[in-house]
Structure formats: structure tokens, C-alpha cells
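From the pipeline queue, job 12 of 40. The input is one protein chain; the requested action is below.

Action: predict structure.
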Amino acid sequence: LTDNGNGTFTYTNEDGVATTFDSKIATVVDNADGSYTITDDYGTSVTIDTTNTITTLVDNGNGTFTYTNEAGVATIITNTDDQFDDEVELRTPIDMNEGGVGSPTLETTVQEVINAIAPITSKAARIFYPPSIAVDASVNGNAFNINLYQQYLNQYGMTLPSSAASTGAPAAIPTYNANQLYYYVTYYDPLVFANVSISASGVMTYDIIAQPSDYNSLINVVFVVK
């Protein structure tokens, strides 16, 4: 029995016939007649007859077997399916990151799938909109401010009386600390607001220069996880 150094073994019987089997998912059956049948994950089987040779095959009781050949050299056969992510092939290759492309590159292993979707999911999970709030724009003035981070805590912390949660849901929604976020104002109505800025702690400062014509206006804010 020869260890080929790549997870396979080659057994040569007394007639010189060689059989190679894969030990990654090998099963060993004691035939109760002094012989053992080893079958690998590809269905290749080999029977070792220990009555005609001076070899031994010992069950170590821990999922491994020790085979000792005629020269007294012992080889441990491990019955395991341990594989790295780049060794686990997909049953059907799929495209994870080139939607709409005429000739996409299909991912074929678990590692390729992880590499393809990690940049997508990491970016998407880091960007979110804070809760909606009402901004009073009924009076013109300068240097108004709103602590957007505190508004986010109030609503996600479910501290407002006008809030509700589904049955069995946690009491509060998970939140980030103020210093774990970047704050952006992506748009504001320039006919209503001016000199809009936002601090590193999430406090937005703004001037009101006019009232909205239809009693509604917009300020879009985005939070990004650092």
C-alpha cells in the first residue's frame, strides 16, 4: 500500500495488480474473513486480504486505520472529508456578480462564490438611511440644528410612544455609536434651505430662507458605517 502524497493510496495485490483509491471519504469494511474492503468517494474499491500477506490493518477507534505492510512500515488512513473552500465544487456553476452580462464568468467553487459576493454585500450593508423626521420650516432663520444621530437612536431604540414591534421581536433595533458612522446630506431643497452642514457627531445645521410652496420639502440624509 503506497501513500501517493495527494490523499490517494495505491494497493498492489499478490498478482501485481495495482488499484488506486481516494482516502478523503474512504470507507473500510471488515469482511470478517481476514480481508478488508476499502471504497473511496468515487466508488473505487480494493480488498486487502491479510491472510495471504504479513500485513495488518488496525481500526484505531477514532475514525482512522493503521496499515502496516510487509516491511513493517505503518501508514495511517484517515476517514475524513476535510476540504478547503477552493476544493468544494458547486453542483451547478452560477454567476454571482455579472448580472446582465452576455458572457458572465461562472463561479465553480465555494471560494469563488465568496470572493464574488463579498464586495457586493460589504458595501450594501454599510449604507443606510436614518429614520424620517419632520423639519419645521414655517419660519425663516439662521443656524437651526437637529441632532440626526439622536433622532436615529430615539426611533431605533423604540423610545417614542408612537412606535410598535412585532410579536417576539427584541425591544430595540441594534444601533451604532456616533463615532462609528459617517454622515452625509445627499440633497436638500435649495429654495427652502441654505448653508446646510453636518458634523462628525451627526448634528445637522441649516438656514431656512423660504417656506415650501406646497407645505412639503426634502432633505436626504445617509449614514455610512466606518
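Job complete. The longest strand covers residues 181-188.
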